[in-house]
Amino acid sequence: MLSSVLIYNIFNNIQEDDLQHLLFFTEYGRLALYNSGKIPFQRLQFLVRDWMNPDEAKYGANGGQKILKDRLKFKDGQHPELKFLREHLTSCFDDISCFLMPHPGLKIRQNFDGRLSLLEPEFRTELQNLVPMLLAPENLVFMGDKLPEPKMLLAATAEASNLAAFEAAKDIYIQEIEEFCKNNSHLNASALQEKHDFIKEQAINEFKGKFKMGDEALIKSYNERLQHEVDNQ
């Protein structure tokens, strides 16, 4: 089981640099969004530890949403990059929420052995609210019997960009050749081959014109795969 909740663990408060740290992640999500047209991630959960301002916002989910709304809102004179970050955070996740946790108490500083009785009552109360919310069945996604093979993020991004270009180019070929065949029911082999070659060239140009990451060998492999698949349609 893999959780579909990304928990962003933050100390004391949500600062601007905490949001900046998410910029690369949201850019990766934007690539997935561009590739599929779907929201790439399910839920982003800000977890603020040792929240120090319960007068500003109460502990728990309601107080967290109040703080989150303030931190993510657009402000006059805000730097364009900060607006960009907020736009893509909201576009990359189905849901963004925040939970404020109190300090667990001073007794944990020395020889804490895991006993809940050593935690402050207020912390235990909020922990009982937080854990069921994170582990609710609807927040878990079954990913199969085996975990996917780990890859470097850059390599995975490069492969995703090439796959997106490949799929877009292949779709163009399929749509064009189907439309041509539908409107020309009586075709000889020579005319069909000529049209195939023409649309194939269109598809290859579409692939070449798409933004792609990765080395020449990776791009070449997807180009060859495209040509092979359209030749065998």
Automatic annotation (TrEMBL):
Keywords: GTP-binding, Hydrolase, Nucleotide-binding. It comes from Culicoides sonorensis (Biting midge). This is CSON008974 protein. InterPro entries: G_GB1_RHD3_dom (IPR030386), Guanylate-bd_C_sf (IPR036543), Guanylate-bd_N (IPR015894), P-loop_NTPase (IPR027417). Belongs to the TRAFAC class dynamin-like GTPase superfamily. GB1/RHD3 GTPase family. GO terms for molecular function: GTP binding; GTPase activity. The keyword Hydrolase applies. Residues 1-139 form the GB1/RHD3-type G domain. PANTHER family: GUANYLATE BINDING PROTEIN. It holds the Pfam family GBP.
